[in-house]
Amino acid sequence: MNSEYNDYMNVSRGTRREKPPGAAEPEGPDPKGTLAAALALCRRDKISLTPGRRRILEILASEGRPLGAYEMIDRVAEATGKRPAPISIYRALDFLLENGLIHRLASRNAFLACGHGHAAQEPIVFLICDVCGEVVEATSAAMRGALSELTGEARFSPRAQVMEVAGRCQACARV
Ligand SMILES: [Zn+2]
Ligand SMILES: [Zn+2]
Known about the structure:
Layout: E1 8-12, H1 31-44, H2 51-63, E2 67-68, H3 69-80, H4 86-98, E3 102-105, E4 110-113, E5 123-129, E6 135-139, H5 141-153, E7 161-167, H6 170-174
Parallel strand pairs: 5-7
Antiparallel strand pairs: 1-6, 2-4, 3-4, 5-6
One zinc ion (ZN) binds next to loops.
């Protein structure tokens, strides 16, 4: 396991929302940071991005929230003036998923950019707010330890370990 891979929380906001009075500035998404980190990862791992794949990654990073494949087709059409075939979008998404550059939220069939540089099979948890749509990507050493023990005992090799927790974020739980 990569020793630089520490516990983290990464926030993607689904919708803009007012900061509650007196609250600390929320740790918002940094689209440029996500893209830069993802591109640095490509250089490190010698992942070559075709212009089409790179565009999908750029769209997801700048969106800063989960996007479905059909929303992605609309975004590509807006950017290029040409409507791509769904299969080309799915192929690009598969490639980005396999290389750990994006994640898929199964419950929403939507995709999210990730600049953490962790392996595609690393355990992660998505905390998904039902009200504002905020998605937080989180992990912890304790969770990784527990899961590796669990899969190890079953002699099971995980391909993906993504958990989704639905509920209300801190701001939405207050109202
Ligand atoms: Zn991630
Ligand atoms: Zn919320």
